[in-house]
Amino acid sequence: MGKIHVTDRDGGQHEIEMSPGDSLMEPLRELDGGIEALCGGMCSCATCHIFVAREWADKLEPVEGDELELLEETECFRPDESRLSCQIVFRDELDGMTFTIAPEE
Ligand code: FES
Q: From the CA of 84, how far away is ligand 1's center (Å)?
């Protein structure tokens, strides 16, 4: 078990419990001010876009392929912080991870 710290689109703060293997996308869909995740995690919509704080971004797999292509097409792309939450699986090393949900496109 671990926790993530999320700032939603309205500026609200949330602490969410996670288990290893959980997709970051799932709990973010449940939040008011959360994500839409229109494609259901198939890496084809970019409505699950988040900005990961830099100290945590370094702990993630590098962004590449379809994820990078989709992110680069968003209006608010940040090269060092943008990720698709559906492509991140929680693991113990991410306990305490902090991020902000990107604005709606
Ligand atoms: S939910 Fe569609 S790209 Fe992540």
A: 6
Q: What is the C-alpha separation between 36 and 45, in angstroms, rounded? A: 9
Task: Express as a percent the part of the chain with pLDDT over 90.
Answer: 97
The pTM for the full model equals 0.96
- Count of structural domains within the chain: 1
| CATH number of the domain bearing residue 96 | 3.10.20.30
Question: Which token pair is 100?
Answer: 């902000």
Range of the domain at 79: 2-101
Which residue from 47, 63, 74 has its CB within 8 A of the most atoms of ligand 1, so it is best to mutate?
A: 47
- How far out from the chain centre does Cα 58 lie? 14
